[in-house]
Amino acid sequence: MPSTGYAIASVAALAAIGAADRAEGYARLLLDDGSGNQTWVVYDDSTTSGDYQPDDTPATGYWLRIPRSTSVGDSLRTAADEAAARGAIGFSNAVLAAKVAIKTDTQVAASVSSGGSVAISGLSISHALQDASNSVILILSLGAVASSSGFAGVPSSITADGSPISVGDAAGNRARAGMSGFFPSATNYAAMPQTIIATSAPGNTTSISYGAQLANLSGSAQTLYLNRTEIDSNINSYFRTVATLLLLEVAA
Predict the structure, then answer these.
(1) Cα–Cα separations (whole angstroms), residue 138 to 61, 155, 158
(2) Which of 176, 159, 154, 175 has the alpha carbon at shortest distance from 167?
(3) How far is it, in rounded angstroms, from Cα 155 to Cα 178?
(4) DSSP assignments along 156-208, one per residue
(5) Digitized pLDDT (tens) for each residue of the chain, 252 residues in all
(6) The sheet that has 61-67: what strands, in order across it?
(7) In angstroms, rounded to a whole number, what is the distance separating the alpha carbons of residues 107 and 122?
(8) CA neighbor of 196 nearest in space, from 232, 159, 230, 228
(9) Chain CA centroid to CA 177, Å
């Protein structure tokens, strides 16, 4: 049954609605608690479990609650059953899964070569699409990025299995990245935040490891810093920040 607070009819009334609704090929009912929280109730039976087709009859079936915009973990049955129900009732553009990775410690990457990159440690998410036609939206937020070199950029990118995705177009010898900043002077107490929004549509259900990387655009090897500045005196003029990677799977 739906969560406490939803205004619903009796089980018998729901079954009657489902019986009439089967003429359209499936049985479903959208409920609202009056505060904007909505949930689908879908009808299935034991004749062909999980097909949500007109053979579903009130005499042999049961009701399945499918939250409208929540994760598979909130299902009352299996992930496969929920995926089938979502397809039957048209959950286009719905968020099917949400995962987050958070890095609160610092990272100091020494001797990163000119034009080289380094993966951000402890900031990755492994995810396999529920359906190959779905896609993911990725949001990367880096609280502070710094370099031991002034007059240089420190670009960042979201990666899929170690390779950057959603980067700028190729343009001669220019670096390609998801986001970049540029330190206009030789300062070792400056840092800058960076935020990237990327998309990925791998077209399969194979698990992919999503992460992030920093790059060095200086003409020589440099040390790159995350969540801190290069100078890091123990006074309140300096700081610690957080890096966050958020993944959302969106139905096709």
Answers:
(1) 39, 17, 8
(2) 176
(3) 7
(4) EEEEETTEEES-PPP-TT----SB--B--S--SS--EEEEEEEEE--SS---E
(5) 334 444 443 455 455 555 555 544 444 555 555 565 555 555 544 444 444 443 444 444 444 444 444 333 333 344 555 555 555 445 567 788 999 999 999 999 999 999 999 999 999 999 999 889 999 999 999 999 999 887 678 999 999 999 999 999 999 999 999 999 877 666 677 888 999 999 999 999 999 999 999 999 888 999 999 999 999 999 998 999 999 999 999 987
(6) 28-32, 38-45, 61-67
(7) 10
(8) 159
(9) 20
How many Å separate Cα 175 from the centre of its chain? Answer: 26
List the one residue out of 14, 41, 16 whose CA is nearest residue 30.
Answer: 41
Domain layout of the chain by residue ranges: 11-91, 98-250
- Calculate the CA dihedral of residues 10, 81, 66, 42 and round it to 10 degrees: -40
Q: How far apart are the first and last CA of the chain?
A: 27
As a whole number of angstroms, the longest Cα–Cα distance in the chain is 77
Burial class for 187, CB neighbours closer than 10 Å (0-12, 13-18, 19+):
middle
Residue 69 in tokens: 């915009």
Is 175 exposed, middle or buried (CB count within 10 Å of its CB: 0-12, 13-18, 19+)? middle
Q: Which residues on adjacent β-strands are paired with residue 135?
A: 250
In the numeric block, which tokens belong to residue 161? 């299995």
Q: Indicate the fold that domain 98-250 takes in CATH.
A: Jelly Rolls (2.60.120)
